[in-house]
Amino acid sequence: MTSTDADCIFCKIVAGEVPADVLGRADHAVAIQDLNPQAPFHALVIPFDHHENAAASAAADPAVLGHLVSLADEVARAAGNDDYRLIANTGAGAGQTVFHTHLHVLAGTSRMTEALV
Ligand code: 5GP
Ligand code: ZN
Q1: What percent of the chain has pLDDT over 90?
Q2: Is residue 102 annotated as part of the catalytic site, yes or no?
């Protein structure tokens, strides 16, 4: 069963109701350009199914995060970025502002070598 939220901006992008620069698609997810890029390459990988964060998506379907990582790798490499960083902000305190699961795919900046972890 597919879940959606009528008020969710990423559900609207998935449905084609809000335009986005699409970088790639897979069976269960779409990759788009971030509207407010924080690096020369900044994609968002968004599963079609609405869940509020990565853990909720994993609980609903353990395979979904694998699909997201595969699509993230595909679009990063297609843009010439073999080195990239994946981020899944979870909770407002960690910087999450859109409560529909997404992976940030960041590449192309020396800031990538800053060690947060
Ligand atoms: P979060 O802060 O939840 O981890 O990430 C949300 C991301 O979505 C932000 O980087 C923000 O720039 C991006 N974003 C928010 N609204 C839109 C939109 O309508 N279109 C696109 N392409 N990106 C969006
Ligand atoms: Zn949604």
Answers
A1: 90
A2: yes
Nearest to 102 by CA among 62, 78, 59, 71: 71
Per-residue pLDDT reduced to its tens digit, 46-87: 999 999 999 999 999 999 999 999 999 999 999 999 999 999
Q: Which atom in ligand 1 lies closest to the alpha carbon of residue 88?
A: 4
Residue type for 87, please? I
Is the CB of 94 within 6 Å of ligand 1? Answer: no
- For strand 41-47 and strand 29-33, is the pairing parallel, antiparallel, or unpaired? antiparallel
Q: Where are the domains of the chain?
A: 1-42
